[in-house]
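Thanks for the sequence, V.! I ran TVP38/TMEM64 family inner membrane protein YdjZ right away. Repeating your input here for the record:
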Amino acid sequence: MKSLQRFGPLILIGLGLITAISMGWHKYLSFDVLAQQSAYLHDLVLTRPLVVIGAYVGIYILATTIALPGAIWITIAGGFLFGPLFGPVFGPIMATALASTSATIGATFLFMATQSALGGGLRARAGGLIDRLEKGFQENAFGYLLTLRLLPVAPFFGINLAAGFLGVPLRTFVLATAIGILPGCYVYASLGNGIEHLISQGQTPNLKIIYNPEVLGPLVGLALLALLPTAWKFIQARRKAA
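Predicted structure:
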């Protein structure tokens, strides 16, 4: 019974991912589907906005929890959907708020399942390098995690799994995730807000927009600020050692 309680949530998430992929649900998260269904989706969001918002949040939470490939298209779809409803300015803001909240909730579910199954005793048995890695990470867990969320350097689901395994406190995980993904969500929601023009021109969106210097530069700056406490501790430790 204890093993079921410990590993059950992570097994359930794994089964959910296998089911979703075997059913081909991940194929709906694409530009082609969004382009084909654009008129229908616009109609739906204008006539049944609350239903669309509820479905959007639910789908996003589920997709993030089971680490379904292509979830970035849900953020883009948010900008596309809520632009006509809330306007060109507030549409991306609303989409960002819904996407970041949903992604944080889904990430937290995966994090907690991983922490339950792979944390604690398993880390203790691993010892050695894992102990040192855990200690180093937890000295400034918020700064490290915030940096990983800000910069597009690691898969979103991979960070969720690693944070759960390394025993990051729940509050730290939620706060760093909620703050760290906001800029990226806004970039892709804004991209989605203008996607109707791309559809009419027969073009596809540039998913690598976040690597453009004008976007990546500020993110790197924020990441460096997040790491300042760690750098200061390192300098202080070197001074004491000297």
